[in-house]
Design brief:
Blueprint lengths: L5 E2 L30 H5 L24 H9 L7 H10 L7 H8 L3 E6 L19 H13 L2 E4 L4 H8 L5 E3 L11 H11 L6 E4 L4 E4 L8 H12 L5 E6 L2 E6 L5 H11 L8 E7 L5 H10 L3 E5 L10 E3 L2 H21 L6
Parallel strand pairs: 2-3, 2-9, 3-4, 9-10, 10-11
Antiparallel strand pairs: 1-4, 5-6, 6-8, 7-8
Helix pairs in contact: 5-11, 7-8, 9-10
């Protein structure tokens, strides 16, 4: 089994031998759902609207595409679904804001542990992945969460990159989908850069233990040729495999490791695995987050929250529309914890 790239807060640094602090190494389609409170958001004004990635576009002309392009489209919905389809989907995956009291009731008497994806969950999806900054209001909300619950960010990016965005030492960080293994060689990275440089808008990012081919700025008619270019490179690297994310193709080592296993590792490292008095909560927007949703579903406790404006197949129990609703949910979670703490009987001295 591979080691995991996980960064622990200073007071938990001894949990895993491989742990190290990052600092030590230097369109809204639908109206807001449920009973979201505007008073909470008013305390955190200034959060930006969801970017143009979500704005509706006319459907493209039918064309034959590879499985990779079909998966890309499935993981990057851009067209508004029918209203009845959306209503049926939200009945199966209700808003985590509108269902907050139910979620809180299930967590009563338990230790809540919060896991969060970064891109598309704590920050909007933007054209330039190096500019996927979270707002100061979101950072304050995440800091509050980390002060009241064990909290981690599980991301496909390398730890150094996501930590530079978040900058909160109170959190646990699991980068590269939680992997700490011998990563893709520099030759594979250089080959991808060379092969895709002729596709306008394509960008290859080296995330230490996985390679990301971003196509957020690539014209849709070029998606299929781009996917073929990536697959052509990987024919020379049989130890690497191609997976798809949201507006990104990811090249990872061919091992059985994903965000679900990263969550299991973190729970075990923190002493929370196999306990009925622990309630893990995972928030994510990407197809790669489905592995974590599945793990929590199979465990019989814990819940997944999908961040998406469009219906799609998911193992998550609840849904939120965008990072603004994520921030609202996190704030309500903190307020719930504070009420519990103030209501708890104090020991006599």
């Amino acid at each position: 089994m591979a080691n995991q790239e996980v960064v622990f807060p200073p007071d938990m640094g001894g949990i895993a031998a491989a742990a190290a602090m990052p600092g030590s190494s230097g369109r809204a389609l639908f109206a807001c759902r449920g009973a979201a409170s505007t008073s909470l958001r008013s305390a955190y004004r200034g959060a930006p609207a969801v970017d143009d990635h979500y704005r509706a576009r006319p459907p493209p002309a039918p064309c034959a595409t590879s499985w990779a392009v079909d998966a890309i489209r499935a993981s990057s919905p851009a067209r508004s679904p029918a209203v009845d389809e959306y209503a049926a989907w939200t009945r199966r995956h209700p808003s985590a804001l509108g269902s907050f009291e139910q979620i809180a009731a299930a967590a009563e008497g338990k230790q809540v542990v919060v896991f969060m994806d970064y891109d598309g969950t704590l920050s909007p999806i933007v054209a330039d992945p190096d500019k996927a900054f979270m707002t100061s209001e979101m950072r304050a909300a995440v800091r509050d969460v980390a002060e009241h619950f064990p909290a981690a960010i599980v991301t496909g990016r390398c730890v150094e990159k996501v930590y530079s965005f978040v900058g909160l030492p109170e959190l646990y960080y699991a980068g590269s989908h939680g992997m700490d293994i011998k990563g893709p060689t520099s030759n594979a990275y250089e080959a991808l850069v060379e092969r895709t440089k002729g596709t306008p808008g394509a960008r290859v990012e080296n995330n230490k233990f996985c390679l990301s081919v971003h196509f957020r700025c690539v014209d849709e008619k070029s998606w299929s040729p781009l996917a073929e270019q990536v697959k052509a490179v990987l024919r020379d690297y049989p130890d690497l495999k191609l997976t798809e994310g949201r507006k990104v193709l990811e090249v990872r080592p061919s091992i059985m490791w994903d965000k679900g296993k990263a969550v299991e590792f973190l729970l075990q490292s923190l002493g929370f695995d196999g306990r009925s008095d622990v309630q893990p909560v995972y928030l994510g927007d990407d197809r790669t987050d489905e592995d974590a949703f599945k793990v929590l579903g199979k465990s019989g406790h814990g819940l997944g929250i999908l961040v998406s404006k469009c219906p799609r197949a998911t193992d998550a129990s609840y849904s939120l529309q965008d990072p603004n609703e994520v921030m609202e949910f996190l704030l309500r979670l903190v307020q719930w914890k504070r009420r519990r703490s103030s209501a708890a009987p104090r020991a006599r001295v």
